[in-house]
Automatic annotation (TrEMBL), chain A:
It is a multi-pass membrane protein. GO terms for molecular function: ABC-type oligopeptide transporter activity; ATP binding; ATP hydrolysis activity. SMART domains: AAA. SUPFAM superfamilies: ABC transporter transmembrane region, P-loop containing nucleoside triphosphate hydrolases. This is Putative ABC transport system ATP-binding protein. Keywords: ATP-binding, Cell inner membrane, Cell membrane, Membrane, Nucleotide-binding, Transmembrane, Transmembrane helix, Transport. It is found in: Cell membrane. Residues 382-616 form the ABC transporter domain. One of its GO terms (cellular component) is plasma membrane. It comes from the Bacteria. PANTHER family: ATP-BINDING CASSETTE SUB-FAMILY B MEMBER 10, MITOCHONDRIAL, ATP-DEPENDENT PERMEASE MDL1, MITOCHONDRIAL. The chain crosses the membrane at residues 58-79, 99-120, 181-200, 206-222, 284-310, 316-337. It comes from Allonocardiopsis opalescens. The lineage of its organism: Bacteria, Bacillati, Actinomycetota, Actinomycetes, Streptosporangiales.
TrEMBL record, chain B:
Residues 391-631 form the ABC transporter domain. Its main location: membrane. Residues 387-408, 639-661 are annotated as: Disordered. This is ABC-type multidrug transport system fused ATPase/permease subunit.
Length: 623, 661
């Protein structure tokens, strides 16, 4: 009588057919020797326990929910028992005990209603607890990712980081909302069904277990095959969407070089791979699921045969045998769902491990927070003492840098690509910590300065002026939250950008597009610079901040910044030596070392790295 | 669920609007019919499985009833049984099992096959359309939306195919069950006719209530991932300005909205499941009650009653498949519409048939522009920042329609630009930030078409040239380029038949050979998202090599060395000059050294050609040009003067009052 249960599974998975696509493309597989995020190594139970610890909401009111769950599970056996009783006490004898059947039906009906109410309560409580817990988990992971250093953020690809706070958490979600409880209920149901079956006939119970034991053992293998197959599907889906996204993101390159044909071949290949993987997974599931159906049929046949033989000897009543067949249904249902529940459990644990992996990654650039010090306002003095740096697993890129930058001075940092300029800037702003030596600001080790203080006093304008997909106004406000339009306007005016602003059709309301791409590269840099200027730092670090701006604007910005930052410390990294000419001092990097230092005029006249750079630059200007 | 691509898929599903109900149903059926027509084979086989399964399922109730009344009860009453009876029972039950398993396997396998094939067809069609549509179309549509067209929209459109055979099988099963109930007992059949429609109706109500909530939750999920994506993308900016707390707040707001939406979904779902389980159970109880009375009255046998009860439990579940289909249909229709919007998008680049004589051109092409005017649509999306704050129910209906042509207000970037570049000449286009230089570059390659005016190669209008003709003739090196997730070799060749020797030559000329050689696998090193990430300067050099390897007859360099340091830039420029390319070259530049490559300079300001001439002429004649190209020099001189005077005055340069753009 187990016939409807396989349908349950079929339907479930019919529903879940989107699952391979809805599931993660196994993120976190970033290759390479770099230090990625750690992966939590706890056992399955340990992972779940830690997961619960992170989201206290999961536990809130869990006791009451479990009570509802127990009642809901117990309620499931009401109807099979009712059928058995009706058959046994009335029908099979040929002279039905009508009064008894009516009373029983009424009692069971009330029972069914109570069960439903409890199940509803249980579901709602579970949803609330789960979703609240997951929102907390997302927030914690998100915050932690921002706390990680630039270095860690780069090693783990951005997409993988995003999936830590989205898909990985979602994987926990479906398990927590239904799977986890279904697992408990299923085991409960198996036990209850077994006990009830045993009440009717221990011999038949044994028959059922003998028939199902091989399936129970096989389910783990089925699950392993299936999850393996769906993992491949997810990977193929990732490849496919990656290929399709190239047609969108790289549209102009494809047009410009006329590589449409090659691109569409690549897409077709990944689409075909994806379909093949889907069909393969589907074939596996189409052959494993009917197995339950077959086992159920074998069980039913055995129960009928053995049951009749027992009944003939008077060991079981006709009603008892019919009821037993209904109970087998109850027994099969959780097994039919087991593959899926196990899969969900495995995914949830994998998801949790990845999120825990993020949270376990100790921020290598830690905020001393309340234990740290705050620097008083005013121009900042910077000192590098024996600073060396090497990217993890890589050769040293900076060696024994001993330099001091006096408060209120303007320093330019120059050197060839790969000479260590940008590393210097990142150490200066504590995007990274030195491997050896110390960076001191106003005599205090940079590592001891509280982040809220550090980030408001030392601001860097990075090379690529990343803008948020919003308006110009909101992007500028990012530098000074709550700034009025007048403040924003006057900042742009002070930087000499008033005319540019007036030239925009929508002024401060101009949408800048995804990553600011509605603006030209030069304009993005102007906004990024204004944004940093609005933050009003005491030490401003410009990393090629005006590389895409036209010379006249650049010179004017330079002049404006000089005026505006008078009394502050500025460090500019530049390819264009115009910046160096304007600086009080130039620090020249070559192969990770500071090789020269002094005013432009002085260095330009002395043979060396700077003179060579300057010669190139001058030649370019004179041509 | 998701992964890095998933959020992009989810995005845009948010813009799914729920069309009116009646139309959804008929249009949904049309979508399903399209699939059946396209894949009749798998559909037929899935239907065979579904019908087999349904028949046997209904039949199994009779088998069980038969076994109960003909084998179990007589044997137990008599206290004796025969081997034949037992074999019959076992054989019947096993036979039922085998047939049902077979039906199930067929139904699942071929329903899946059909669904996946349809997904694959439409993924290919949508992405091929992306390749066909002009860049202007691409500019109008956000990346996330296009990705969701090929991802989640395709998936949504074909989602109902999974339960379709089961639902048709169930409908068939219901008919048989109804008939068999009517034959067995009229009174009990009435109970069935009350309960089953109730289940179907409940399903419909459920899907109807759940669908908008689920769509909203889906949109909010996409939003959470958008916020995370953008925030991590801009992590450096967030960090440098110490805005982690504010960003966490922004993210938490999005996550909380998702949480609330999910809890609402949970309420509906949490109500539905118990009711769906209770209904057939109550039905069985009613059957028992009525059945006992009927047996008492001698109107039916115990076996028939068992069969009835069984039929009830049997049909309760498959009836849900109607609910799934009905629930999936609105999303399917929206997905289909969004797909169709791409597939039927107008404005695909029209190509002519003209060809440029390829062989006879040792030099480059002659390039002319006459009265070229071009404008961008004002921000392809709503300019309001409200989008950042959240999604209101109304927003779900919004979202740009992928199919519409650009008709919005436009900001004109170029006004009546005229150019005449003789073959083999090198022309520099110079102008302040935002003057329209890059736009002009796109026009020269026909990445976009002008709003008015004409561009020609060797006298042929670009619009009349055959497909592939322009990319065979011209190459653009943009300011920032896209690196494909592929090897260095493939990134340079991009499918062009280039030998390794030619690739190395191009790399050498682009001054990229040294760093490529230093990569672990040389030309075979993987770049892009899952490979080595390159610095801005390195990417520029890859882009340059990509262009050079094609030996273009028109080379357009759009500030292509801005991220390269001066010495390397000097080497590159010297190399290009020496290479004596047989090409017309257009360079967009600020720097004197780059301008020095040019025979002629076009000075652009505010989208207009202000002057054309040699560098010396323009320096002489054009104030704006002089200021621009001599900015560094004059700055230097002025600083020298200031230093000499021992002064450090505020800058008093005339440029103070000058416009940026």
């Amino acid at each position: 009588m187990s016939t409807d249960t396989t349908d349950t599974t079929a339907g479930r998975t019919g529903r879940g057919r989107a699952a391979p696509l809805a599931a993660a493309p196994a993120p976190g597989g970033a290759p390479g020797p770099q230090p990625g995020l750690s992966r939590a190594q706890d056992s399955a139970i340990g992972t779940v326990r830690r997961g619960f610890g992170l989201s206290p909401e999961f536990r809130a009111g869990l006791g009451v929910t479990l009570v509802f769950a127990v009642i809901a599970t117990l309620g499931r056996v009401l109807v099979p028992i009712a059928v058995q009783q009706a058959v046994d006490r009335g029908i099979a004898t040929g002279t039905p005990d009508t009064g008894f059947v009516i009373a029983m039906v009424l009692v069971c009906a009330v029972g069914v209603v109570v069960t439903s109410v409890c199940a509803y309560q249980m579901n709602v409580r579970l949803y609330r607890a789960t979703e609240s817990g997951l929102a907390t988990l997302r927030r914690k992971a998100f915050r932690h990712i921002h706390d990680l250093s630039v270095l860690t953020q780069n090693t783990e690809r951005k997409g993988a980081l995003v999936s830590r706070v989205t898909s990985d958490v979602d994987q926990v979600s479906s398990f927590m909302q239904s799977g986890g409880l279904m697992l408990i209920i299923s085991i409960g149901q198996l036990l209850i069904a077994t006990v009830l079956m045993a009440v009717y006939s221990w011999q038949l119970t044994l028959v059922v277990w003998v028939c199902f034991l091989p399936l129970m053992l096989a389910v783990r293998y089925f699950q392993r095959w299936l999850s393996g197959a769906y993992l491949v599907v997810r990977e193929r889906a990732g490849d496919m969407l990656g290929a399709i996204s190239e047609t969108v993101v790289g549209a102009s390159v494809i047009r410009a070089h006329g590589t449409e044909e090659r691109t569409s071949e690549r897409i077709d290949a990944t689409v075909a791979d994806m379909r093949r993987a889907q069909v393969r997974a589907q074939r596996l599931s189409a052959f494993t699921f009917p197995t339950t159906e077959m086992v159920a049929a074998i069980t039913n046949a055995s129960v009928v045969v053995v049951g009749v033989l027992l009944g003939v000897d008077g060991d079981i009543s006709p009603g008892g045998l019919v009821a037993f067949l209904f109970l087998v249904t109850l027994f099969v249902a959780p097994l039919a769902a087991a593959t899926e529940v196990l899969n969900e459990a495995q995914n949830a644990i994998a998801g949790w491990r990845r999120v825990l992996g993020v949270l376990d990654t100790v921020p290598d650039i830690a905020d001393p927070a309340d234990a740290g010090v705050s620097l008083p306002r005013g121009p900042i003095r910077v000192e590098f003492r024996g600073v060396g740096y090497a990217y993890p697993g890589g050769p040293p890129v900076l060696h024994g840098v001993d330099e001091a930058i006096e408060p209120g001075t303007r320093v330019a940092v120059v050197g060839e690509t790969g000479s260590g300029k940008t590393t210097f800037a990142k150490l200066l702003t504590r995007m990274m910590d030195p491997v050896e030596g110390r960076v001191l600001v106003d005599g205090t080790d940079l590592r001891e300065v509280r982040f809220d203080n550090l980030r408001s006093r030392i601001v860097m304008v990075p090379q690529e002026g990343f803008l948020f997909d919003s308006t110009l106004r909101e992007n500028l406000e990012f530098g000074r939250p709550g700034a009025t339009d007048d403040e924003l306007r006057s900042a742009l005016t002070e930087l000499g950008l008033a005319d540019w602003l007036d030239g925009l059709a929508h002024g401060l309301d101009t949408p800048v597009g995804e990553r600011g791409e509605s603006l030209s590269a030069g304009e993005r840099q102007l906004v990024a610079l204004a944004r940093a200027y609005l933050a009003d730092p005491d030490l401003l670090v410009l990393d090629e901040a005006t590389s895409a701006v036209d010379p006249a604007t650049e010179v004017r910005l330079q002049r404006a910044i000089e005026g505006l930052t008078r009394g502050r410390t500025t460090v500019s990294i530049a390819h264009r030596l115009s910046t160096a000419q304007a600086a009080d001092e130039v620090i020249v990097f070559d192969r990770g070392r500071v090789v020269q230092r002094g005013p432009h005029r002085e260095l330009a006249g002395r043979p060396g790295v700077y003179a060579a750079l300057n010669a190139s630059w001058t030649r370019q200007q004179q041509l | 669920m998701a992964g890095e691509w998933r959020e992009q898929m989810a995005d845009g599903a948010g813009a799914a609007r729920t069309p009116t109900r009646g139309r959804v149903f008929t249009r949904g059926l049309y979508v399903l019919w399209t699939a059946i027509r396209t894949e009749p084979g798998p559909f037929g086989l899935a239907m065979f499985g579904a019908v087999l399964h349904a028949t046997v399922t209904v039949g199994s109730a009779s088998v069980l009833g038969y076994i109960t009344s003909e084998i179990i009860l007589p044997s137990l009453r008599a206290g004796d049984t025969t081997a034949a009876a037992l074999w019959t029972a076992a054989g019947l039950l096993l036979g039922v099992g085998v047939l049902k398993a077979t039906g199930l396997a067929f139904r699942r396998l071929f329903a899946g096959l059909m669904q996946y094939r349809m997904q694959a067809h439409y993924r290919r069609r949508v992405s091929h359309t992306f390749l066909r549509l002009p860049l202007a179309w691409h500019h109008r549509h956000p990346t996330g939306q296009l990705l969701s067209n090929a991802g989640s929209d395709v998936e949504a459109a074909w989602q109902p195919l999974a339960p379709l055979p089961m639902a048709i099988g169930t409908a068939y099963m219901l008919v048989i069950a109804a008939a068999s109930m009517l034959i067995t007992d009229l009174v009990l059949a009435l109970v069935g006719f009350l309960v089953f429609p109730a289940i179907a109706l409940l399903n419909y109500v459920y899907q109807h209530r759940l669908s908008p909530l689920a769509t909203r939750a889906q949109a909010l999920r996409a939003r959470v991932s958008e916020v995370a994506h953008e925030s991590f993308d801009g992590a450096l900016v967030v960090k440098t300005l110490g805005r982690e707390d504010a960003e966490t707040e922004r993210f938490t707001a999005a996550a909380s909205r998702l949480r609330d939406a999910q809890i609402k979904v949970g309420r509906v779902r949490g109500m539905f499941d118990p009711v769906m389980e209770a209904l057939p159970n109550l039905g069985v109880l009613v059957v028992l009650l009525v059945g006992v009375l009927r047996i008492e009255g001698g109107a039916m046998t115990p076996g028939e009653l068992v069969q009835f009860a069984f039929l009830f439990t049997l049909l309760a579940f498959p009836i849900r498949s109607f609910g799934w289909i009905l629930g999936d249909l609105p999303r399917a229709v929206v997905g289909w519409d969004r797909m169709q919007a791409v597939l039927t998008a107008r404005g695909s680049t029209a190509y002519g048939t003209a060809r440029l004589p390829a062989g006879q051109a040792p030099g480059g092409v002659a390039v002319t522009a006459e009265g070229v005017t071009f404008g961008y649509e004002d921000g392809y999306r709503d300019a309001s920042g409200a989008d950042r704050d959240g999604i209101s129910a109304g927003d779900l209906g919004g979202g740009p329609d992928p199919g519409e042509g650009g008709t919005g207000p436009r900001t004109t970037v170029l006004h009546g630009v005229d150019l005449a570049i003789p073959p083999g000449r090198t022309v520099a286009i110079v102008g302040p930030t935002g003057a329209g230089k890059s736009t002009l570059a796109s026009l020269l390659l026909r990445l976009v078409d002008p709003d008015s005016g004409t561009l020609r190669y060797d006298g042929t209008d670009l619009r009349e040239l055959a497909k592939g003709e322009i990319s065979r003739t011209a190459a653009l090196v943009p300011q920032t380029t896209f690196v494909f997730d592929d090897t260095v070799r493939e990134n340079i060749a991009l499918g062009a038949p280039a030998t390794d020797g030619e690739i190395w030559t191009a790399l050498r000329l682009a001054h990229a050979d040294a760093f490529v050689r230093a990569l672990p696998d040389g030309l075979d090193s993987r770049l892009g998202e899952r490979g080595t990430s390159l610095s801005g300067g390195q990417r520029q050099r890859i882009a340059l090599a990509r262009a050079l390897v094609r030996r273009p007859r028109l080379l357009v360099l759009d500030d292509a060395t801005s991220a390269v340091d001066p010495q390397v830039e000097e080497h590159i420029l010297t190399g290009l000059r020496r290479a004596d390319l047989a090409a017309t070259v257009v360079v967009i530049a600020y720097r004197r050294s780059t301008i020095a490559l040019a025979d002629e300079v076009v000075y652009l300001e505010g989208g207009r050609v202000v002057a054309t001439g040699t560098h010396d002429e323009l320096t002489e004649r054009v104030e704006g040009y002089r200021r621009l190209v001599t900015a560094y020099q004059r700055d230097e001189e002025q600083r020298a003067a200031e230093a000499a005077a021992g002064l450090r005055t505020e800058p008093t340069d005339v440029e103070e009052s000058e416009a940026v753009a």
